[in-house]
Structure prediction request, 385 residues.
Amino acid sequence: MHSSFLLLPFLPAALAARPFLNEPTTGIDEALANTPAGTLPDLQGIVGLPDFDWAARRYMNVSDYTYYRNGAAGEWSYRNNLEAYNRFRLRPRMMVDVTNIESTLPTTILGHNFSAPFFISPCSRGGLAHPDAEKNFVRAAGAENILYIPAFFATLSMEEIAAEKPSNDSQTLFQQVYLSSNDTETQQLFDRIEGLGTKAIVFTVDSAADGNRHRAARYGVGSADSSYTYITWDYYNKLQNMTSLPVIPKGIQSVEDVKLAIEHGAPAVFLSNHGGRQLDGSPSALEVALEIYEEDPQLFRQIEIYADGGVRYGADVLKLLALGVRAVGLGRPFMYANTYGVEGVQRAIQLLKREIAIDAGNLGVPDLKAIDASYVKWVNNGWYS
Ligand SMILES: Cc1cc2nc3c(=O)[nH]c(=O)nc-3n(C[C@H](O)[C@H](O)[C@H](O)COP(=O)(O)O)c2cc1C
Prediction:
């Protein structure tokens, strides 16, 4: 018997022990080795979204970088968000005409037209990476015609952010909110949001209790939301009566809650575990999307479903779209890209658009709207588990 056969029983254990890689080794350490600490490499040297993390980690001071990077507790959910996509292999189809794939990226989100099925997720404190803070997200999203959802705890005020939109108000923004129990304040906030021409309210429902952030606690940069908050479906219905805007619950993590969202008249739901920053052990959006698909794929047609967490590659986006997710959000990659200002954010958007198109092409998808679950083998192959 060949001696390597003797090792077969130990193979699963060996694979399971494969170390976690925050940034997969694709040669950036060697290629950009001469980048002095505290400086950014040339933007042209950034070839994929994980590279922005590499650049930001060397450029930003450690506490600011930690605020962006951190996850809850042991960061198992943060890691799982990144690793979940690679547990499922693609099923490429050959001999398919994919020459028009790029023209099929545009989509609608709640009826608004965008050039691609991904968006900038709401992340607080954009000013830690760049003095123009969230202005860069508005400008880059506007130039590339993708959706940007400013965070409630942004560095700039909602008014300063909205002022960056083109004067003809052609750019669509949604607004993320955290709410206090004071209805008068909530009403005033909703009125302000409507007055700015914002098209939807994204209500974060995954943070009813404080985040447990070990990495951040070392630098005193933990969650800004430190109280227990009253968030129920009754409360959600009350909010719907306080605004004419659609209110999208963000942080849905089970098929039961998707069904409840439909029952309570939600226009859309946003699958997210807050980038693994809130509850360690919470599932990645891909796992939740698969749970929904396995229970009832029609749910993706009954309500628009968005998802974020750990998306770094075009193929990650494709796996979510294949299950029926309408649009996919990214948080940290854009926050790190903002170290370069508007050009960095725009490059991140362009890199991802290109990766989605070429990955779909190689997967044999002629039209991105035609992607379905048959393009992925939905069997956990055990890698990185
Ligand atoms: C620095 C940072 C700040 C965030 N702030 C908020 C926030 O204020 N409100 C919210 O709903 N989500 C917030 N999130 C979560 C993001 O909206 C999003 O769900 C998450 O970043 C997606 O995971 P990804 O970073 O792996 O793409 C934040 C995430 C990061 C990284």
User: Anything to note?
Assistant: The chain has one domain: 101-375. Residues 67-68, 81, 121-124, 151-153, 176, 204, 250, 272, 274-275, 277, 308-311, 330-332, 335 surround flavin mononucleotide (CB under 6 Å).
